[in-house]
Amino acid sequence: MNARQEHIAVYTFVVFLFSFSLFCYGFFPLSFSPSTKANLDELPQGVGNASFSGVDYKPKISRAVLMVIDALRMDFVLQEENFQFLNQLLGDGKACLYRLQVHPPTVTMPRIKAMTSGAIPSFLDVILNLGSPEMKLDTFLYQMKQRQQKTVFYGDNTWTNMFPETFHRQGENSDSLYVNDFYKGDRNITKFLKLELEMYDWKLMILHYLGLDHIGHVEGPFSGKVPGKLKEMDKVIKTIYQTMDKWKQKYYTKPLLVITGDHGMRDSGGHGGSSHPETIVPVVIVSDQCAKSEETFLQIDLAPTMSILMGVAIPYASIGSVIDPALKMLHRREMLHALYYNTQRLVTKVELIINNKFTKSEWHNSFEEAKQLHQKFMKDATDISAYKRTVLLYTSVSKKLTQLLISSYIRYDILFIVIGMVMALFCAAIAVLQLLQDTNASVLTLQPKLFPSINCMLLSFLLLKLLSFEKQSSAEPSNCFHAVLVSLSVVYFTLWAILSHLLKSMQASLWTLLKSASLLSLFIWFGTSFHCISLGSSSFVEEEHQTWYYLTSTIMILLTLKEISVMNSTIGALSRHTKSDASLVEVCKEERNIFCAGSIAFLCIHVAVRRFNQTGDKWQHLPDVGDWLSKEEHEMWLSLTMLVGLCYLVYQICYMAGLLTTVLSLTASLLIYYYRAASGAVSIFGLSASNSAICLTIFWINLVEIFFIGFLPMMYRAIMGRTSQKRTGELFNNCIIIVALLSALLHKPHNVLLVGALLATSRFVAERIDRIADDKHCSILLKVITHYWLGKTFYFYQGNSNSLASIDLNAGYVGLNNFDMLRVGLFLTLHTFSGPILSFLLLLHHIFSDNERDVKHLPVVTNVRERMLTLTNVLITVPGSFFITVATVLRDHIFAWTVFSPKIIYEYFTVWLVLIQVMLVWLLLPKKSCASV
Description:
There is one protein chain. The protein is of the alpha/beta class. α23 packs antiparallel against α24, α28 (692-719) packs antiparallel against α29 and α31 (776-797) packs across α34 (864-889). The radius of gyration is 32 Å and the shape is globular.
């Protein structure tokens, strides 16, 4: 059986995507949080031989307000000029401020789940954040409903999606994900709040304000709009407090106000990562019966604390401890009863995990001592020392048990991880071996022998059966299960057959190829290998941009030096030739000098645009050029920067467009500037701009016209039976222009310059390679890998990182007035990955340009498409398989969820994007190309 190398490359890539999916399914399981519901019948009736009275566990407050301010950072609360009234309460001892630590991912839906259930959400809840499915876990809201305690809610519709049929009354934001709404949604919440404060039929009111989070997404935490928003929240707090104070004086009730944030906000705006400003949030207990504490509690501690205050059962899934300083209002007997109740729950959960080991641990001894002291206090309520010691032991034991449960509740599915990892390693090995094959051998002859093949498949099946034994033991294996095992066995056998035949047909070893390679090729493979190995370090993953900055800068310098060397050789040859014209030598020298000056200027541009956006982890908090330009007092400089960026983009478009397309591109660029001026980001130097909807409509019409300028002539020739390679290339060039203009629209104003810089860099690199490459294969190798590096470099230039917090949600809402999953997803993808997408399209543009040259007298090289597919496989599968292997080995590492997990999500999404690129190469790229460069 014969198989073409390009078919093998596509098959290997698809299998790699499948294996990556299996790995992710095993690496990101839903955390173990059962849907079992708790009830008050489970309350402990006594400790030792001392029994509790029926009044030890009852509601401690008359009604409560839980006010969630989305993206409220700890330092925001401490700004006395903005939270004037709240800080006055803190200073007068009428409120207490505590620190809460939030577990990643720091996005809204998982954080609501943690606050209400006390359970640790799955990391993949970051994806479910957009859909917010119904909550199945036990929560204190469910327990309140069971006790006929009514709850009302106003704010983020994530709550109403998660808790349908839970609230007595509700008023959710119609579009909570629309990040350009700074004020309207919050004002609606405040309007309903004032109405609810006049009603007396509810026990708990939940408010979730979104304006602060939206300002952070669009303008960052240091925006001029943040102080005004904080003052608005302070007024809301004052309104609630004054009303509650009237209740206390008139009805002698005990109301309570709890203020917190679901997550924080990173210094560059946004959230989702694990930086300190994102994971440390405040919780303020507005009550004169609370104690101050400098201790850091966990966000999951809110669920048991709220349950105790409301007098309902602690949710079954809760593994949090109690925020004991907030329970000062409890009498001593009630405090010990509550602490014992929660600690006993945690002990029961731990015993199910570590069985008899718990009785031999120091935690068990401390818990038994606490129970003895508790029993002693029950008999003698005047023994204050016993009370304090009991509180200390209960709280310390519960916190230790909480940490143990957190680590044990995150469970991996080793079966899927191992299957996916091994399959990915097979794919990576095949990709490398394909690269080492004879460049003229486009067909691989597969001749598997019958009996060894059967034995190999049976062995694969038995190994998979053995690995899945634990899963089978819990349920009877079905025919479908066996069919899946057989299918996986066939895939493994196919990979093994391809791998073994590639090993046999390999013409030269890797070492032989490296010895005969040029300096540029050696550096290309060194850079690829170094990046792959660097993924084994969490610090290199966090600061991955440094790797790409170094590799891209170095390859551009090497290309420049190589061409200068070629120029010097040419000048030397002309100087030695006696018949050469001296003026020709001078012209060559002048051309060399201009080239050197231009190259230096070009590298300086890269150094400048690198400073536009700080990224990574260690220096992300430092101010950058983008921060300086975004300040209101520097609006003129931002306007000038955007104008220069758009002009530079149009200038680069001229190299691949005709006159009419260039004019339309110029018009589209002016419309982009007008749209940003209408939104207030830039100015039109004294003029006013309004009605951004009309300018965007004209912008979309321009893009459609650019597309049809290339499409209609091609369709006409197809109908008339004529073929024109040039017209096909023109359509593709126009598509690149459309993507570039759309990227410029989605980018922040100061980042528009990056689009033109990427087009210029691609042209710079391609021209250098065309002049210095030894042959066509070398040219393809250099172009593919350098464009892959360029895409990664510009990905980080715009401020992206391997943290989920760097995703700019504002880009998804350009031109939209509401949330639309398809359009927002498309815009976010194009904005976030504009560097890799544009770089790949420009690579195809250069390949097409090579094929359009008049080179009929040159020999033809086949398998250009195969070479590109093989190189793409190596660039994606080798680092990808290595990284998931590292993640598997380090799955219990402290940075598994803060560094490796977000990187896995990014890499998985990237593989899907590359699959689209592979399909484009397969459909658009011709098999043949000229041998000369």
